[in-house]
């Protein structure tokens, strides 16, 4: 390197031509303390020997074997090659880090997309289940309403049938009494009523759910029959009581209407 360091030229320009030799040596000593080995080598070529004969620099040059010539260009070239190698290593490390970061980013993006698709699939399945549940609830509600309507219609039909049977029975009894027809015995009446009320059970082709519904229907019918039986028994007891009361009243009325007989033909 042929150029003189800036700080050296600055110091050199400040030297006065009339400056004494001792002050010059002191200045050169302080400058040599701050110089590198390369600057010292240049300094040794630039100044005469008598200016530096009595001074030892702070940083001494490396020992060079006698007979060998130092090639500073080769040193500089090797240093540049070393710097270039280090720079290439840094560049390769940078690109490796960048490649690794890009791979991590790609993996992260793929995981995010996978998670997003899984979330969408979960939402779709949840919506389908909710829709199926609502449809099932609506079907169950419609089935219950249909069963209630059918049950109500059956109850109304049964009540109408019972009333019609009662009316027919009363009309037939009245006709028999008026026309002198043969009266039915109590056993025949009972058989007729049972034959009218008896229901046929076709349970061979029914599944479990329909069998349960059939059992509930029969239970409701039995419950209704028990109510009717209780009402008829109460009515029968009431009528029997009223008949007994009326008979007692008639008997009392007959006794009171007779009175004492007068004795005719008796002389005084």
UniProtKB/TrEMBL annotation:
A GO term for molecular function: tropomyosin binding
Region of interest: Disordered: 126-194, 246-268
Record-level GO cellular component terms: troponin complex
Keyword Transport: no
Keyword annotations from UniProtKB, A to Z: Acetylation, Muscle protein, Phosphoprotein
Residue spans of biased composition, Basic and acidic residues class: 126-158, 175-194
InterPro entries: TNNT, Troponin, Troponin_sf
Single Gene Ontology BP annotation: cardiac muscle contraction
Compositionally biased residues, Basic residues: 256-268
Stated role: Troponin T is the tropomyosin-binding subunit of troponin, the thin filament regulatory complex which confers calcium-sensitivity to striated muscle actomyosin ATPase activity.
Family note: Belongs to the troponin T family.
UniProt-recorded name of the protein: Troponin T type 2b (cardiac)
Gene it is expressed from: tnnt2b
């Amino acid at each position: 390197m042929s150029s003189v360091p800036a700080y050296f030229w600055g110091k050199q320009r400040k030297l006065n031509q009339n400056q004494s030799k001792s002050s010059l040596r002191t200045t050169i000593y302080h400058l040599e303390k701050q110089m590198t080995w390369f600057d010292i080598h240049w300094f040794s070529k630039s100044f005469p020997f008598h200016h530096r004969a009595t001074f030892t620099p702070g940083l001494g040059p490396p020992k060079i074997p006698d007979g060998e010539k130092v090639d500073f260009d080769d040193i500089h070239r090797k240093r540049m090659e070393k710097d270039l190698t280090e720079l290439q290593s840094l560049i390769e490390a940078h690109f490796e880090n960048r490649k690794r970061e890009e791979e991590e980013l790609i993996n992260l993006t793929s995981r995010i997309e996978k998670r997003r698709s899984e979330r969408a699939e979960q939402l779709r399945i949840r919506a389908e289940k909710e829709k199926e549940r609502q449809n099932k609830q609506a079907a169950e509600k419609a089935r219950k309403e249909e069963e209630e309507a059918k049950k109500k219609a059956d109850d109304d039909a049964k009540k109408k049938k019972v009333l019609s049977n009662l009316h027919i029975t009363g009309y037939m009894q009245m006709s028999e009494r008026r026309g002198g027809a043969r009266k039915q015995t109590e056993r025949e009446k009972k058989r007729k009523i049972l034959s009218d009320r008896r229901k046929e059970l076709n349970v061979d082709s029914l599944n479990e759910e329909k069998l349960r519904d059939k059992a509930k229907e029969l239970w409701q019918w039995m419950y209704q029959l028990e109510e009717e039986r209780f009402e008829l028994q109460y009515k029968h007891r009431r009528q029997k009581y009223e008949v007994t009361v009326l008979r007692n009243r008639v008997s009392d009325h007959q006794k009171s209407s007779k009175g004492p007989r007068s004795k005719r033909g008796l002389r005084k």
